[in-house]
């Protein structure tokens, strides 16, 4: 496995054996997540004109109006920039590795619409295929051949998937897979890890605690206690807590779900043998192992984290990339489990727009591009160049930093590291990250507006993009 994770954790991998394990701060909120409510950072910088020629005047006007129309001015919380402060940018268009805001500012984009844009934004072939499909209509609500095609591609790529069900988002995929795991095992309890995000369905919105067998407490008003009662949590990369949970709740645990490489607490890889051990422990206890590959699927490798690490879960969730920028999610796994799903079996789950022809088309053409030889080698090469450059620049400007990458997924923290849990990630200087984020924005580089989100590169990022980003980082690191 060592070779398989050779791209991981540039600055912390070597420290693995001697790593300290900080005591995990007591009950911590999941509010760090980009897709949850982020802590507010007060920025002292004026929202506009901090750099010559850089103005966000139109963004400001539009966002001001939006706040009166939609809660917080957005349709997904992290976009409001609450965790970095300052003015969010309002996007006008995207192409390749770049995007443009309504004020005409251009950015090198490392968010990629939170992951889907792995072949670059608005790829010409995807756009042409969408235009063709659109001539036949935008929604059928009935079987279509495009569903078969994408299903075949997913099944042949992802080792654990023998049958697949398409839905419309990662949240829906995780909701469906949880019901399926419970239906198949006849058990109620699940284990999730602190700092892993599995969408916003009630059972996953649980405050993660530091105890051995922390019972789920709702993390958001409106989530009934009953909905999270069966959700058990463990710190990430902590096998003894997992073993204790299985011991304490013998015969009650339906499934263990995790992001095999975490992106929703920043980029956090598994410690060597963690995934292997989870595979063994779940098997021994008759529980299902679920990889939430909404983020890692088709990103770490064509077959996702399970191909990359060589570990096959029982069930897998997908999203983001398989929709090529249109709304899609999916869950899949062994045939005997999937045949529980209606109408093949009794577990009910449905969707008006599921299998939508436009979404299937964008997914098919995105996967076709990814399948071309050299795709993942290229992603690895440019991402290594990027993260190495950022870490070197940060450290030589005197900042304590660590970070890592696998293929086209990366992250860095303002702490010495190593970071192997959300507790470790919280050591990062988030106020410094906010200043870095703002400085980079003004230099024309768009990172996720939260310390606790992974970054993404794409096949459209060029070495020139990377070098420009590193040069900008060198400048900003000296100022923050
Ligand atoms: C690992 C993971 N699971 C589930 C989700 C939820 O997906 P969606 O936002 O499409 O509902 C996300 C979203 O970022 C995710 O990263």
TrEMBL record:
Record key words, sorted: Isomerase, Porphyrin biosynthesis, Pyridoxal phosphate
CDD domains documented for this protein: OAT_like
Pfam families linked: Aminotran_3
Protein name per Swiss-Prot or TrEMBL: glutamate-1-semialdehyde 2,1-aminomutase
Subunit structure: Homodimer.
Necessary cofactors: pyridoxal 5'-phosphate
GO molecular function ontology, one term from the record: glutamate-1-semialdehyde 2,1-aminomutase activity
Region entry Disordered, spans: 1-42
Catalytic activity as recorded in UniProt: (S)-4-amino-5-oxopentanoate = 5-aminolevulinate
UniProt source species: Macleaya cordata
Top enzyme class: isomerase
InterPro entries: 4pyrrol_synth_GluAld_NH2Trfase, Aminotrans_3, Aminotrans_3_PPA_site, PyrdxlP-dep_Trfase, PyrdxlP-dep_Trfase_major, PyrdxlP-dep_Trfase_small
Coiled coil: none
UniProt entry tagged with the keyword Hydrolase: no
EC number: 5.4.3.8
Family: Belongs to the class-III pyridoxal-phosphate-dependent aminotransferase family. HemL subfamily.
KW Isomerase (keyword) present: yes
Record's GO cellular component terms: chloroplast
A biological process term (GO) from this entry: chlorophyll biosynthetic process
Pathway field: Porphyrin-containing compound metabolism; chlorophyll biosynthesis; Porphyrin-containing compound metabolism; protoporphyrin-IX biosynthesis; 5-aminolevulinate from L-glutamyl-tRNA(Glu): step 2/2
